[in-house]
Amino acid sequence: MTETLRTDGDRLWDSLMEMARIGATPGGGVGRIALTELDRAARDLFVTWCRDAGCQVRVDRMGNIFARRMGRDADRPPVMTGSHLDTQPLGGRFDGIYGVLAGLEVVRSLNDAHVETEAPLDVAVWTDEEGVRFGGGMIASGVFAGIYDVETGLARADTDDITIGAALAAIGYAGNEAVGGYPVEAFFEAHIEQGPILENESVPVGVVLGAQGQKCFKVTVTGAEGHAGTLPLRERRDALLGAARMIAAVNDTAYECDPLPVVTVGSIAARPNSRNTISGQTIFSIDSRHPDDAVLAGLAERMRARCAEIAAAGGLEIDFDLISERPSIAFDPGCIDAVRRAAGRLGVKSRDIYSGAGHDACQLNRIAPTGMIFVPCEDGVSHNERENARPGDLAAGCDVLLHVMLERAGVI
Fold first, then answer.
1. Are 353 and 193 a contacting pair, CB within 8 Å?
2. Full-prediction pTM beyond 0.85?
3. Which residues pair with 270 in a beta bridge?
4. CB neighbours (10 Å) of residue 48?
5. Strand 370-375 with 186-192, pairing
6. Contact of 411 with 2, CB cutoff 8 Å
7. Are 335 and 403 in contact (CB under 8 A)?
8. Cα 346 to Cα 338: distance, rounded to the nearest angstrom
9. How far apart are CA 129 and CA 115, in angstroms?
10. Which of 85, 168, 167, 93 is nearest to 124 (CA)?
């Protein structure tokens, strides 16, 4: 019976659209910042739905919500799924929210089919994945995974000096449960791809192998200011011109790698930023990512060397500073294979893929076998009001999630 079991795609879509009304923006997206009144309303709706589905709901000290569908053996570690309900200021209707409501749909579908599992199933909502309000992102799932301690997490403050602890209390989600510290059988997160690969290849399910490593740099190029009309070209030490050449070189250097990384210069600031003054200093960012840490390290050194060559040729000084990094993440081979098997059994086309973005699953991967399931999003657009996904793709990903959770939890 369970081999032919499917989730209710229409019900999943209806739930997504009802949740999207909370914080709806004029452009068709959602703006629901963590631990605001809108976040409280979304949490309340989720909790109501979970209790209606017969789940036991717990809230830990970081405000993480866990809705448990009991299994026959209450002592077995839970099979967990979930994601987040908070969004970017002008975000979409699916990023994070899909993973939460896909988990709920798994519970509802098992209820409809009267299927009992051996192990409990938990659907989790992780607090402030996006990091818009409190910076950093994935703090609460990081506390659960033992990366940060609870007090550090609760003390993190927004720009108004309101801490996560105070904000949780204000919206009524300062739970009493300990954060983590218990075994998890496996964690699976369903998510939109947030990129164009699956859609371009007409593949409804991505089997996520892991997440790319990341190195972020701040590059400061220092020259000398001068009058735009009087200083001859050959005598200039133009920091903005040097930075422009470096940015082009950084992009060219990326094409020397195989497979290709993703490299982005997303911010630039010139001083004094005046139309008729030669720039004396220009600062720009580099965000570089690749699933192979050795390739990423080699890329970083080549970018550094090329920028130094350009600085020397232009009589410029340069500081090439690493400001943040994270290693690549490999998900559990058993969980990866479970996703492949489930897609195969269901007749759903799939392909292996890496995540370019960070997710709560990347934190859970430290303490539990972890896997992710990607589904396409329209034009690869995410963190944007135009973010969209097809109901059929969302249902296919949810069906795969159902079957991997059943496999891991065991069916009576």
1. yes
2. yes
3. 282
4. 11
5. parallel
6. yes
7. no
8. 12
9. 32
10. 85
Residues ≥6 apart with Cβ < 8 Å to 114: none
Question: Are 405 and 81 contacting, i.e. CB atoms less than 8 angstroms apart?
Answer: yes
Both tokens assigned to 150: 């609870």
> What's at 181, amino acid-wise?
G
CA dihedral 176, 181, 183, 184 (to 10 degrees): 60
d(CA 125, CA 59): 9
Q: pLDDT-based confidence at 136, cuts 50/70/90?
A: confident
Residue 258 has phi, psi (to 5 degrees) of -140, 115
Q: What is the SS3 assignment for 366?
A: coil
Write the single-letter amino acid at 66.
F
The H or E element that residue 380 is part of is none
Instruction: Classify residue 24 by its DSSP letter.
Output: B
Contact yes or no for 6/388 (Cβ under 8 A): no
Residue with tokens 């904000």: 167
Per-residue pLDDT of 250-301, as tens digits, reads: 999 999 998 899 999 999 999 999 999 999 999 999 999 999 999 999 999 9
Q: Tell me the average pLDDT across 106-125.
A: 98
Task: Please report, for residues 25, 246, 375, the alpha-carbon distance to residue 305 in angstroms, rounded to integers and kept in the order given.
Answer: 45, 10, 39
Measured distance CA(87)–CA(22) in Å, rounded: 11
